[in-house]
Amino acid sequence: MPTVTMTVNGKQVSGEVEPRTLLVEFLREGLGLTGTHVGCDTSQCGCCVVHVDGRSVKACTMLAVQAEGAEVTTIEGLAADGSLHPLQQAFHENHGLQCGFCTPGMIMSSLELLQRNPDPSEAEVREWLEGNLCRCTGYHNIVKSVLAAAAAMRGAARAAE
Amino acid sequence: MHIYERPRDLETALALLAEGDWQVMAGGTDIYPARVDRPLERPLLDITAIEALHGIEETGEGYRLGACLRWSELRDRPLPPIFDGLRKAAATIGGRQIQNRATLGGNLCNASPAADGIPVLMALEAVVELRSLRGVRRIPLVDFVRGNRCTALAPDELLTAVLLPRPRGRSRTTFLKLGSRAHLVISITMIALALDCDPAGRILRAGVAVGACAPTARRLPLLESRLLGRDLAEPLATAVDTAVLAPLAPIDDIRGTAAYRRRATLVLLRRGLAELATPLRGAA
Ligand SMILES: Cc1cc2nc3c(=O)[nH]c(=O)nc-3n(C[C@H](O)[C@H](O)[C@H](O)COP(=O)(O)OP(=O)(O)OC[C@H]3O[C@@H](n4cnc5c(N)ncnc54)[C@H](O)[C@@H]3O)c2cc1C
Ligand code: FES
Ligand code: FES
């Protein structure tokens, strides 16, 4: 079997995979990173979103071998030094989840938005999350959480200046 | 053992295609969801590492878009107004995380009747470039898309680029689609308009295409000829009536009836024309 090598959450990892193994299967079953969820089999739900070279993608529409040499970030890679990422903190504080199944994907999708646009409007957040489905919350608190995280991250950036 | 190749240059990819039966894969966003419960069996030829299939280039004749251009790249780059319609289509395809993988070439080769990229490119009179070891062919997109999921692509060929002819004047383009919600739905109908105007706003060329209302997207020649020579400042919506829909053959299905598709198409055409009647921005 071919060996695939990539950087996941800052650490270089390699593994032998059948070429048709999806990236999400490699992350979950090969590396034990089960924070990336699988909620559908048609690339609709967005539970499996991770970052590949800085872009949010559905890890169920990509093969592990296609991530050869790539920088992959999963939800497990966000918290630093024992403290939650501002997006994780904001979802916690704003009741942005109920069962939590969609949350890793919601956060990983939102992260790319905030990296590109530190001050998105509510409409921009909603549009960006079109490909992330939630069966519990009705989305309002998810959007509120992302906007709160954006404000917190802007505040932190100003404080650092 | 399942086989996967990801060549870096076009010649290698074309040589592999000439020898064997490969499933060509770009973003994979049409391939995977279509195979629910069935493993990928054919050897996979991943074409996304081929540099020559990427990027947007301005040429003497117009623009050349690489087949592996991702929809999000089209959205994120500053581009002239000729791309406005294509960018609007890009923004409606599958949500951001799909746009980060899905490609222009994949949308055309998959040739779904509801492919959102096709009507805009037809209205712009796009030409597709197909390559194999046997040589290169350039054929109009209208002739490339032959039917529902049926194209003129030969088994040993790759679609390498989409060529847009230079507009004859200032270009104004738009795209409107109707679905049961804004994103991640299969369109009920969609329309694309591409008008080239002289500096005074007189229409020199009109391209109009409709998707999801026939096995392939169709142009509307009667409406195009009615728009020629008219002024953008006139109420152009009066050019739209049921007669212009003659090339369409919409069906009744779970998403809407044929009659509803016709009505909705008329509304979208009028809305699109009204949108393009607003003041010109920039050149070409
Ligand atoms: C959740 C979801 C939502 C979607 N929403 C939309 C939507 O709103 N509108 C829409 O139009 N589409 C939509 N799609 C479909 C799909 O994303 C697009 O059609 C996309 O552009 C396909 O590109 P790809 O690179 O992923 O194609 P792939 O899946 O890689 O390929 C599709 C087909 O084209 C062939 N192919 C690809 N590139 C080439 C090439 N250069 N030369 C020869 N053959 C080639 C492949 O062999 C395959 O048969 C959606 C898909 C998903 C999963
Ligand atoms: S698991 Fe549903 S989009 Fe990937
Ligand atoms: S919190 Fe349950 S699916 Fe979103």
Describe the structure in your own words:
The complex is a heterodimer of chains A (161) and B (284). Chain A is of the alpha+beta class. Chain A has two domains: 3-77, Ubiquitin-like (UB roll) (Roll), CATH 3.10.20.30; 86-160, DNA polymerase, domain 1, CATH 1.10.150.120. Helices cover 36% and strands 14% of the residues of chain A. Chain A has helices at 23-30, 86-93, 103-116, 122-128, 140-160; strands spanning 3-8, 11-16, 49-52, 55-58, 71-73. In chain A, strand 3 (49-52) and strand 4 form a beta hairpin. In chain A, helix 2 (86-93) packs across helix 5. Chain A is globular, with a radius of gyration of 16 Å. The model of chain A has no long low-confidence stretch (mean pLDDT 96). Chain B has 284 residues and is an alpha+beta fold. Chain B has a domain at 170-276: 2-Layer Sandwich (Enolase-like, domain 1). Chain B has nine helices and 14 strands. In chain B, strands 4-5-10-6-7 form a five-stranded antiparallel beta sheet. In chain B, a hairpin with a 2-residue loop joins strand 6 and strand 7. The longest helix of chain B is centred in the C-terminal third of the chain and has 19 residues, at 258-276. Chain B is globular. The N and C termini of chain B lie far apart (52 Å). The chains are: A alpha+beta (161), B alpha+beta (284). Chains A and B meet through strand 4 and helix 3 of A and helix 4 of B. One FE2/S2 (inorganic) cluster is lined by residues 38-40, 43-48, 58, 60 of chain A.
